Amino acid sequence: MTYVDRAVHLVNGRLTPRDTRAMGWFSGVKVRRGVTAASAAFDAGEYQRAISLGQDAAALAHQNHRFTDETLVLLVLHRAHGTLGDLDAARRALDAARAAATSDRSAVRPLLTWHVEHAQAILHDINFEPQAAMAAFDRAIEAIDGALQIPGVQLFGGARALAHYRRQTLLGIADLLGRGGRIGEALTRNADVIDSASTDRDGPLLIAALADRSWLLRIVNDDDEAARVIDRAANALAEVDFSTTHRSAVLTAMTRVGLEVARLQALAGNGEGLDEAFAQARDVVDREGTPDLLSEVLAAEVEVALQLGRTDHALTVARTLQGVKGTTGIIRLRSLQSQAMALAAGERYDEAHTCFAELLPRCAETDQPVTGFHMSLLAAHVAAKLGRTGDAVARIRHAVRDYGTISAAVGTTATRDRLLAGDASQRAECFAVAAAGAADRVPEAGLAAIEVAETWREDTLAGTLRANHQNLPADVHDLVTRIDALRAAVAQPPSAASLDDSFDPRVHGESRLRSQLDLLRGQLAHTVGEAFARGYVPAPVSVEDILAACGDRALLSITPTEGERDGLVAGYTVWAIPGEQPRIRRFQLTAAASTLVRVLHTGRPDHDTFPAAWRDVRDELADLLLPAKFRAWLTTRTTQVVACADGVLRNLPIAALPVADRTVLADCAVVNRLPLLRLAAQSPPETKPDGPLRVLGVFEPGLGGAVGERATLRELHDVGRVTLTEVTGPTPLITALTEHRFDLLVLSTHGSGAGLDYRFHLPDGDLAVASLLRMRVPPTVVAAACYSGTDAGTDATGALALLLSSGARDVVTGSWSLPDGRTGTLLSEVYRTLDGTTALPELITRAQREAHLRLHAANPLSWAGLVATSMR
Length: 872
Known about the structure:
Blueprint: H1 3-12, H2 17-43, H3 47-63, H4 67-83, H5 87-103, H6 109-126, H7 130-147, H8 158-179, H9 183-199, H10 203-219, H11 223-237, H12 247-267, H13 274-287, H14 291-307, H15 311-322, H16 329-345, H17 349-365, H18 369-385, H19 389-407, H20 413-422, H21 424-439, H22 445-456, H23 474-483, H24 510-528, H25 530-536, H26 543-550, E1 554-562, E2 570-576, E3 583-588, H27 591-602, H28 610-625, H29 628-634, E4 639-645, E5 658-660, E6 663-664, H30 665-668, E7 669-673, E8 693-699, H31 704-718, E9 722-726, H32 730-739, E10 744-748, E11 750-752, E12 759-762, E13 765-768, E14 780-783, H33 799-805, E15 810-814, H34 820-833, H35 840-851, H36 860-863, E16 866-870
Helix pairs in contact: 2-3, 2-4, 3-4, 4-5, 4-6, 5-6, 6-7, 6-8, 7-8, 8-9, 8-10, 9-10, 10-11, 10-12, 11-12, 12-13, 12-14, 13-14, 14-15, 14-16, 15-16, 16-17, 16-18, 17-18, 18-19, 18-21, 19-21, 19-22, 21-22, 23-24, 24-25, 31-34, 34-35
């Protein structure tokens, strides 16, 4: 029988087993030739020919049960269909490849599985299915681990090739994490790829990873580092061997490096040569027939043109982008985003508003918080220009929720600080929109304002510990390093029931989210205690929860947005009276008032000159920072005000602000300076002491006030009202906290420093506040050392925040260099009235009123420097 006859028998299905064995070698050669031909056609950019050849080879491979070859050629078909934009055909080819790989019983099956899963992840990604894409990437990594077990894979460079595949997947994961707002995790994964690619001299992956890193760094406003990274990529291009890399991958890598260079150049205000560069990039990409990459180039050109103030050119390019044909949602999203940006810049607000109506729901549906934040903010600006302040406020709330997701997942404190500082103008714009909404009586304006203030506020320990690693115990240092990767799991947007249905939050699986949250808290609780774990876990801002926690207390939030370092201090006051919606109002201080609050912010006001300066500006400060209705309400009842101030206003003595003639706020209300409003709904359980109060105290013998406090507590000890334990050094204090339970901790000493590096200067050595991290901190703490509460309004890294996060309910700290004698006398009176149930701010206020019959006439430095905070 001739080979032709055998082929006919094969087609007709009449081959005997002997005939089949004889044909095995011939059919295998023919299949491999078909696979090779299809791959060569794809590499040459002849995608239709690759499809034709691949279909024949796949059919022959399937008939001969050559599943390895079938899988590989089907993957070629998948890529060819995808390049041509036929995603349905690409999906069918990939499904067939998966079936063939599943049927394969050879040792290379794990490698086939990697190819299938990696391709599946990319397909999910371009269809905006981020969770499915991440799951496929994870399966691809598992497949690589399995491929490492293939016999002989370590020989002939097999392990090196597998490392390349692993890097491809990790880079895909990093890109997905970045677009999902999990910047910290994305930067970490990206760094791993860069290090590995550098070690293995994997030039193509190194270039791609560096381009991605530049983009991630720009998101967190680290433009200088982004420029250094992209310079490294540009310099490496000439040295990279692309001979084994597919031309489309080479084109993509080189194009993205060029686009990053153009963006950074535009950010520096330099547009020289960019028109020619973009024209060349468009021509090259267009000739290759890759619409997705072409849309990327055009979107970057719009962005650069707008950065350089060339609105007309941006509009022209946006129209070109609108005409790019393709079936992927990415192209449509880029087109909408570019159109919206250009139309808004061109003041064509009605058209931009229509564009945003389609764009914003897509951002929400596809887990794109970075894009969602910037576009929602721009949409709010457009809505405000159109007089639609209600829509503008709703857009702001959505933008802030996205921003909270991003900022909680950027990684280190330094990175978050850059993000917040770089986006300060966006915060001011959000406040301005909320204020405009309030002027138009938009009900949600005040709610939006609180969300804006809290989202930009340093109000959680999440991430701040990284900035203080050198001060942490070794095991806590290791724990914080490991759990940072889990933080983003709980940094998801809260329920948005008050927004339109089109803005429903992304669904991440309640059970999965809860299990990750429990795991994180469990790890923390095991090492540093449950109370600290509650404070460390980041949570999205929920204004409804904040207001519920305030209950029948008034709320006051003051945020400066201008003049932090020089010029006139300006910003926004947000306040809430129980039973009413929060309200917002803008303020701007005079030069004299601005100078005074900056002096207070240093924590070192001059005790001789301050009283006169205070009398000159206190009425102005009250008029601007405490709205008339708010002041009038305070004077009609005895209440508590939960107050929080940011930035240069953090040390402002709010209790000393006038609310009526000869009346200051402390005369009619208890001021609770609560720096972490989110913790208000998570206060530690309240337990009434059983018997005398158990007091642990440290007293500096060189301070007259501290000696007076010690004498008072000894007197109370002698009559059985308290049991006093005295120590003089950090080691005995920590031992006592470890071995015994106390109701009150008194640290009556000098102090200095900032953040977790703040130190109490005990008689026998310094006590670093970080060393209390794992202690059983008593529910009441008096730590009125100088500067211990300098940033009482918002600091998340200092003594006050750590004590609250480690179990304390009531804390007293000091705003500035406190007068020793007066402070000791006032605190002695507080000790005499301690009953274990009355909140410390109330006791402090009573003592202040009794010590100064006319608080309005007393120098605030003599009494208002004690910052009282309660979680009750």
